[in-house]
Amino acid sequence: MTNLTRSSGAVVKTYFVLLFFLALKAAGNASMAWGMKQVPERMAINPALYLGAMLNPFVAMGIAALILALLTRMALLSLADLSFVLPVTAIGYVIAVFVGKMFLHETVTRQRWLGTALIFAGAALVGSTSPDTTPLVEDAR
């Protein structure tokens, strides 16, 4: 296998893991938001309220998806630089605005759309760079 093929495969794997992370994050946040809107009490310092909210199936699914997203982010950080991963995963904020608008029927103001567009532009700019610029420890020898 040539270096070109290996690096192309690594880039494809990185973007696949990135897409999986973004899907988990969007699903987890949407599920948790939906579930929290069904919880009658507003959250406060009382831990019993949080434990009760976790019994809502949508909140529980959201928590599970977000835990899996965290594990996926760990895998992503093993494949790509932090300076690539964090800005590119910010596209999740863009996805969250669309999910909030389309599925949770939230009102999204012009200022929020503008902010979302800026986040998208920044994530697209970083996403056009190489995901991994740091040599592996074994390569440095």
Task: Please describe what this structure looks like.
With about 140 residues, the protein is mostly helical. The protein has one domain. The chain contains seven helices and no strands. The chain has helices at about 5-40, 45-55, 55-80, 80-90, 90-100, 110-125, 135-140. Helix 1 (about 5-40) runs parallel beside helix 5 (about 90-100) and helix 4 runs antiparallel to helix 6 (about 110-125). The two termini are about 20 Å apart.
Brief digest:
The chain is mostly helical. It has 7 helices and no strands. Helices cover about 75% and strands about 0% of the residues.
Present the secondary structure layout.
Blueprint: H1 3-38, H2 47-53, H3 57-79, H4 82-89, H5 91-102, H6 110-127, H7 137-140
Helix pairs in contact: 1-3, 1-5, 4-6, 5-6
Counting helices, strands and paired strands, the structural category is mainly alpha
Counting structural domains, the number is 1
Q: What's the number of extended β-strand segments?
A: 0
Distance between the amino and carboxyl termini? 21 Å
The number of helical elements comes to 7
Q: Bin the helical content.
A: over 70%
- Report low-confidence residues grouped into runs of 5 or more: 1-6
Q: What is the overall silhouette?
A: globular
Which series of helices and strands comes N to C?
Answer: HHHHHHH
Estimated share of beta-strand residues: under 5%
Features:
single chain; 141 residues; mainly alpha; 7 helices
